[in-house]
């Protein structure tokens, strides 16, 4: 398969679009956790019970074809997927690592452009996830609520009048809402201001994590900021508070970028061009170095220092150079060194497409 075709087929269609504040905010995500009242939580479910949950949710979704007509949802059963296929879904943020690794009898429903995925039998019976490019928290919340309302018409949710939606983990009780934004913050890292900003964000009741959420590091200067509180606040308040903090971080990042451009322009240009040269010429490159160089190149594009390269290159290559995608593109299982060689080759090919 040619790289052009592989990129077209591998990258989620929603990722190819730009959204508000997309020079800094790569994506917005909302996830709603729900459970069916008559079934035990997935962690305590056996095969028969788990399959009953899948059938019950499928029945809700297919009732009058309300969801399938609007979204053309397709179901994938985890037990029918190969480990590499599940890894690719994780790298595309369509399923969680938990669903891929531990939810043996789980499933996922996805729409055509992969902006909606409904995980079944993960930590909770239902996890509705909606994604969009740029800063679009209100829009993805609206889409998630629409999906939630359609399912709830035919499902009996576990709900308490005082506590709200009941979930497997107490931290999700209440609204069951997790909202997050993925942000590219290279200037705050370069100016070392990020070390002050992260504790300040944490004090506001928000969490700052890496690209794949809890327990992951921020590769390529990409940080995920999300709410921690789900109880005692409305969905709208959670979204408003998160968006307000994100806008402040955007302003700080833009100010830091201008500071670098005004005060250290030659040094900055040297750094960005060196990173581009590394990507254009490396024969072996590890994931951390690739992520760092890709971050520099994207910064150079946003500051109009590097020209003739698409803004989508960071979004694409941060996904395509992950282990699962590298092996999918190669058509075989690769050891770490082989992946580093393949990663360098794929990046060179991608940049050649830009030059073409």
UniProtKB/TrEMBL annotation:
Keywords annotated in UniProt: Allosteric enzyme, ATP-binding, Kinase, Nucleotide-binding, Transferase
In the UniProt record, does the keyword Zinc occur?
no
Record-linked Gene3D superfamilies: Glutamine synthetase/guanido kinase, catalytic domain
Q: Where is the Phosphagen kinase C-terminal domain?
A: 24-256
Any known activators or inhibitors? Appears to be allosterically activated by the binding of pArg-containing polypeptides to the pArg-binding pocket localized in the C-terminal domain of McsB.
Which InterPro entries does this one have? Arg_Kinase (IPR023660), ATP-guanido_PTrfase (IPR000749), ATP-guanido_PTrfase_AS (IPR022415), ATP-guanido_PTrfase_cat (IPR022414), Gln_synth/guanido_kin_cat_dom (IPR014746)
Query: What is this protein called in UniProt?
Result: Protein-arginine kinase
Lineage of this protein's species? Bacteria, Bacillati, Bacillota, Bacilli, Bacillales
